[in-house]
Amino acid sequence: MSFDFDPNVNIDREEDDNDPEDVASYLGGEGLYGRVPGGPQVGAANRSQGQAHVGPDQDRGRPLGDQGLPIERQGQAQARGGLGQARGGPVTRSAGQAPSLQGTLGRVPSQVSLAASAASASVIPTSGYFGSQKRQAVEINARRVICPKHARGAHGSRDYARHQEAATKAIPYPFASAKHFHAKNADGEASNKYANLQSEYAGNLAKIKTLKRRMDAWDMISPFVIPDFVDPYALSVEDRWGDRKLTGVNLLKNWGKVTLKQCRNWQRDSFDYACTEDLTSMEWAKSLMMNSCDVLLVDRIDEKFDELDLYEQGGVTYIKIALDEMFTISNTVVTTLQGFFEAFAKEGIAKVPNEDVRASTEQIVAVAERLAEVSALPTESTRHILEGFTRCSVIVFRQTFAHLLVAERLQQLRYLTNRNDSYHLIDIKRLCKEATIYSIL
Asked: pTM for the whole thing?
C-alpha cells in the first residue's frame, strides 16, 4: 500500500516534545523558534505586496545580505516593518508555530490595549470626583472604626462571636513582666543601660499604643475616659462625677493621673448605670489585655485583682492594675530612668541599631513623660539629649545639633531660674520631633 503526500497540506498532529519537526524548527525551520530570515513567512510577505513567488530557485545567483535575502529585497523588507511582517499585516502560521503566538508578532496584544483603555475609563473628571457637601470631622473619624459598638450583633449570635474574637485577639508582641521593677544587674548594682530600658520599660510603652489602636478600631475606648470624682456621698450618679468632656482622663494615656480608688468607684457605677454596649466594651478590653500579657504578668495582676469586691472587678480596674504593675515608679526606677539621659549623652545615636532617630526619640519621650508625672525630670535632660544627637555618623545631622547644644548651654547660663517639669517636657517633645523630621530630610 502506498500513500501520496502533498507537502503543501498542513496536517494536524498532536504536540510532542521530541517531535523531529519541532526539533528541526529550533535549528532554522519554520516552527516556533525557526522563523529565520528567508523562511516561508518572508515569501508570504512578498506575495502580499504583489510580488510573484517563482520558487526556491528564484533568488539563485543573486548576492545575499547578512539576513539571508538578496540585497535589494532585504532593504524592502526592512522598510516595510520587519522580515516577518509587511506593513503590519498578519503572518501566516505554519504547522510548527505555537497557536498562542498567532497574531502577536509586530503589534501589541489586544488584551493589553483593552486593560489600558479600561483603566483610563475608570478615571473620572475632577468635576465628577468631588461632591457638593463637606463631610464633618465626626464622619471622618467614624470611618476609622472597624465595628461600632452598636453594630456588634445580638449577644450570643454568630456576628457577636466573630467580632469578639477579632477584638480580643492578642496583640502581635505581648506585654512582658515588669523586669525593671527590680532594675539591677547580676552583681546587684543599679542598671540604667539604654538596652535594658529599651527592652523592659520603653518597649512596653510602645505596646500600649498598639493596644489603644485596637481598642479604638473596635470602639471600646469610651468607658476608659474617667472624669473627676467630685462627690462620693452624692445620691445621684451624675452628681458624683464631673464632666467627662472637661475633666475626663484617658486611662490608656495618663494612667498615673487616675488612682485605683477612683477606678474602683467608676467601675461600680458603670456596672449599675452604663449602657450595655459600654459594659461589653469593658469585658472585651479586659480579655484583650489578659490575652496580650505573658503568664508571669497575668499572675501578678490577678493577685491584686482578686482582692477587689466582685462589683469592682471589671475591665477598668483590670487595665489600671496591669498598667501599674508594668510601670510602677519606685525610687529605684526613678534613679534608673534619670540615668537614662546621662547614658544617652555618652553613647548617643551611634549606639542605636541603624542609628534610628525615630526609635530613640520614642524612648526619650516615653521616659520623660513618666518622670514628669512624678516631678522627677532632670533640668539638664535637654542638654543630655542634644549631646546624644551630636554622637552620630551623619555629619550634617551632627553639626546641626552641635549648634543647638551651644545655644542650650548659653540659655542655661542666662536663665538660672528653675523651670517646672511640664516646661522641660514640652522642650523635649519639640526637640525630638524636630530631630525625627530632620533625619528624614
From this structure: 0.60
